[in-house]
Structures are given as structure tokens and as C-alpha cells.
Design a protein that fits this description.
The protein folds into 2 domains: about 180 residues, Rossmann fold; about 210 residues, Dihydrodipicolinate Reductase, domain 2. Helix content is about 45%, strand content about 20%. The chain is built from 17 helices and 16 strands. A 7-stranded parallel β-sheet has the order 3-2-1-4-5-6-15, sandwiched between helices. Helix 4 packs across helix 5 and helix 7 crosses helix 10. The longest helix has 19 residues. The structure holds NADP nicotinamide-adenine-dinucleotide phosphate. NADP nicotinamide-adenine-dinucleotide phosphate binds next to helix 1, helix 5, helix 8 and helix 15. Keywords: Membrane, Transmembrane, Transmembrane helix.
């Protein structure tokens, strides 16, 4: 496959911005591991961030972990700060693709997107913040299209497994898939698991600002998506799921919003039948359920007030039973953790009209992978970036602001993920 190439003016295929962050350090390791698979070995990349010293430390650490002592000297460092637009422009001019790990994106994301659009670099992020993702679509889609730049959000655990899982299931279904539910379960090893504070903060600010999201969505002036086939019933706020044999709640992350945007794009641009989607997450047995409800009540109360948000931000461990922490998970905890999305779909066989009667066929698929935040996310982000690099002809014809499903529906991203530990299968 013909790769998008660098030039003397734009010397790096990939620039990891925010490489010194908790997630950024694992993206650095994933890039270092993955580019060594390139038979020609000439993928050029650099790390970027606001502190040269921290970036040097990250490279040193990655060199030790991966046993690649040359990493420190072979990988260039770019100093760039979100608060200094000239430094962002200089960074973006040097990159074919910026892998942006600087969050919360609601505070730091827009200047980076703007600099990428203005300076011709594609942009991948791992945001799980619908307000940020959708406001970038509203404000930069036309400009990005004019410049031929792809701005592709939510390319981490939020929301590649769900969004590409829906597309994979649709592609495997013999006929017209009209409705799909996913059930997420997460497992931890004997050492348990944590999520880093960066994601906790993104969630707090995002939930505090949900009312603005409704206003933002009105500005798109979208017509409702046509619902084809039997209407998918929404489950309750809490129910026992026979599918995953445990209690489940509606999934609170960005997946449903991202999938909906993808389905709208595919329906409007490719006349595809939109798939109705319901996303749920398992919470375990009764003991877990009581703990979770208690934590959720306190969280929902505190997140409404500025003093409450400050408390939540100061004491993540206390308010999340230790699930979110400023230290993040250890490597041992990450090794013991995994996720599974079980998809249950229904639709109509090729000889049946989806506008008539009840669905007459079902499908079940799985998307499984390693620890969500710092193993699966770097894999998904890096494979998304390599897909832009190696498969430009399979991307949407015009640049623009896209969801992963909209950007990658016609690429081999699912195959790439399968080869790197995020496995899609029909069961
Ligand atoms: N999609 C997913 O599933 C997923 C998974 C993991 C993380 N995430 C998201 O990724 C984001 C980062 O999370 P994290 O836990 O890695 O957070 P983090 O450890 O706090 O990292 C934040 C990064 O942003 C950098 N930064 C902050 N202000 C900056 C500025 N003005 N200019 C340049 N760089 C700046 C920090 O640089 P310094 O090191 O210099 O402070 C650091 O590199 C969050 O939004 C999180 O929600 C998403």
C-alpha cells in the first residue's frame, strides 16, 4: 500500500503530542514497538510536549522497557505548548499526523485541532468528551475539508471498539442489520486495576457541562435519523442482563454519541441503513451494585457545584473506591486487565424487506482486548494513525472532522487491530 510520505519540510510521519502524560508514555512505547514492524524501518516520528526534560525521561524509560537503547538518540523532541500558538504551528508543520494525548480536551484540545487544520497535519485524539468532539465537527469540518486534513476524534478505547464493532457486525451480517446492543465487561487480575486521574478529570468536567451539549447539538440542525426495522427498546437505568449474567446500566461514556454520528454519516453519505444502537456496561453482582449506586449518588451531587468538583478532583481515590487514582495503574495491574464488548444484533435477511414485519435474523459478535486505558487505547490510536498513513485512498474522499467509523469504515483498520491484540469475531 502506498504510504503518505514525509518531505524535507514535513519530516515526521507521526508526532506524539503530550508524550509525557500518563497515556502519552504508553503511546510512545506502542509507536516504538509498531514502527519496528515496518519492513523498510523508515517511519519517522518525534515526541512533543511542553517540557523537554520530561520528554527525555519518557524516551529513556521507553528505551529501557523495550530494550531499544537507541530510542533516546533516534527520536527527536519538539517543544510545544498549548498556550503558545506559534509553537503548535511549528509542531504541526513538521508532522503528517499529530497523535494528540493532551487532555482534558475541553481545555486543551481546540488550539491543537486549529493548528493542525491551518498547517496541514492530520489529527488523531483519544478524547471521550462529546462536547469537544462535536464542537470540533461544528467549527472545523469545512475548513478541514478545504485543506484536505482529517481530524479523527475518539480513537482510543473510547470509541474504536464500539464504533468499529458496530461496523464489523454490520459487515458480517448477511442481510440488513437494523439494531444492535453492546454489553461491556471489564476484568481485572489479582492486583486489581486503576484508571488515571486524567480520565477522571475529563469525566467530571464533561458531566458538569451536559446541558451545553444539548445546545451544541441543536446547532447542527440535524433531521432525526430514519429508524429502519423494529424499534430498538431502551432498557432501564438498571437491569439484570441475561446476556452477560450480571447487573448492567446504560454505558455512560461517549460510545453511543460517537456511534450515532457514524451511523448518520454512513446513512447520509453512503445511503447505508442506520443501525439503532444501545450501549450497556456490566456492573457485577449485588455487592458491587450497592457500592456503585452509593458512589454515583455522591458523584452526581458533587459534580453540579464548583466546590464539589474541586473535592472530586482533589480526592479521586476516595470518591471512586480507589478505581481512579493520581498514580494510575501499575504495569502488573495492566497486564492482568482486559475488556470484552458482546454485541447482540438483529435484522432482516436479504430476501426480507426491512420495512415490513419483525426482524428474522440475529448475529452475535465480540470485540475483546487488553486493559482499556493504557494498553488498548495506545494500540487503537497507533493503528488508526497508521491507517491514515497507509490507506489514504480508503478514507472519505474529502478531509473533515470524522468519527473513527466514518473515517475507517472502508479501510483495513479491523484487520490491523486483530493483528495487534484487539480481536473482532463472530460467535
Ligand atoms: N479514549 C480513552 O479510552 C482514553 C484512555 C486514556 C486517556 N484518555 C484521555 O487522554 C487524556 C490524557 O489523559 P492522561 O491520563 O494521560 O492525562 P495526563 O497524565 O494528565 O497527561 C496530560 C498531558 O497533557 C500535557 N499538557 C497539559 N497542559 C499542556 C499544555 N499547556 N501544553 C502542552 N501539553 C500540556 C501534559 O504535559 P506535562 O507532562 O508537561 O504536564 C501531559 O503530557 C485525557 O483527556 C483522558 O481522558 C482517553
Amino acid at each position: 500500500m502506498a504510504r503518505v510520505e514525509t518531505s524535507s519540510d514535513r519530516p515526521y510521519h507521526l508526532v506524539i503530542f503530550g508524550a509525557s502524560g500518563f497515556t502519552g508514555q504508553f503511546v510512545v512505547e506502542e509507536v516504538a514497538r509498531t514502527v519496528s514492524e515496518d519492513p523498510k524501518g523508515n517511519t519517522k516520528w518525534a515526541v512533543a510536549g511542553r517540557s523537554r526534560q520530561k520528554l527525555e525521561k519518557v524516551l529513556e524509560q521507553a528505551a529501557g522497557v523495550l530494550n531499544k537503547p537507541n530510542l533516546r538518540t533516534q527520536v527527536d523532541i519538539i517543544v510545544a505548548d498549548v498556550a503558545e500558538p506559534d509553537s503548535l504551528a511549528a509542531m504541526c508543520k513538521q508532522a503528517v499526523i499529530v497523535l494528540n494525548c493532551v487532555g482534558p480536551y475541553r481545555f486543551f484540545g481546540e488550539p491543537v485541532v486549529k493548528a493542525c487544520v491551518e498547517n496541514g497535519a492530520h489529527h488523531i485524539d483519544i478524547s471521550g468528551e462529546p462536547q469537544f468532539l462535536e464542537s470540533m465537527q461544528l467549527n472545523y469540518n469545512s475548513q478541514a475539508a478545504e485543506k484536505g486534513v482529517y481530524i479523527i476524534g475518539s480513537c482510543g478505547f473510547d470509541s474504536i471498539p464500539a464504533d468499529m464493532g458496530v461496523i464489523y457486525t454490520r459487515d458480517q451480517f448477511k442481510g440488513t442489520l437494523t439494531a444492535l446492543e453492546s454489553f461491556l465487561t471489564v476484568s481485572f487480575g489479582p492486583d486489581g486495576g486503576h484508571i488515571h486521574d486524567g480520565t477522571w478529570q475529563s469525566a467530571i468536567y464533561g458531566l458538569a457541562d451536559r446541558s451545553n451539549l444539548r445546545g451544541l447539538r441543536k446547532k447542527f440542525n440535524h433531521k432525526p435519523l430514519p429508524s429502519v426495522g423494529s424499534k430498538l427498546k431502551h432498557r432501564g437505568a438498571l437491569f439484570y442482563s441475561n446476556e452477560i449474567q450480571q447487573y448492567a446500566i446504560p454505558f455512560m461514556g461517549s460510545d453511543p454519541a460517537v456511534v450515532k454520528r457514524t451511523q448518520r454519516f454512513l446513512a447520509e453519505e453512503h445511503r447505508a441503513t442506520p443501525v439503532q444502537y444501545g450501549a450497556y456496561a456490566g456492573v457485577g453482582g449485588v455487592g458491587n451494585l450497592i457500592k456503585m449506586m452509593f458512589a454515583a449518588m455522591i458523584f452526581w451531587f458533587l459534580v453540579k457545584f464548583s466546590f464539589g468538583r474541586n473535592l472530586l478532583i482533589k480526592y479521586p481515590e476516595f470518591f471512586s473506591y480507589g478505581f481512579f487514582s493520581k498514580a494510575g495503574p501499575t504495569r502488573k495491574q495492566m497486564e492482568g486487565s482486559s475488556f470484552q464488548f458482546s454485541f447482540y444484533g438483529q435484522g432482516y435477511t436479504e430476501d426480507q424487506d426491512p420495512s415490513q414485519g419483525k426482524p428474522n435474523a440475529k448475529i452475535r459478535t465480540l470485540v475483546q482486548g487488553p486493559e482499556c486505558g493504557y494498553v488498548a487505547t495506545p494500540i487503537a490510536m497507533v493503528q488508526a494513525a497508521l491507517t491514515i498513513l497507509y490507506e489514504p485512498a480508503a478514507l472519505p474522499k474529502r478531509g473533515g472532522v470524522y468519527t473513527p467509523g466514518a473515517a475507517f469504515a472502508k479501510t483495513t483498520l479491523v484487520d490491523r487491530l486483530n493483528k495487534h491484540g484487539i480481536r473482532f469475531s463472530v460467535i
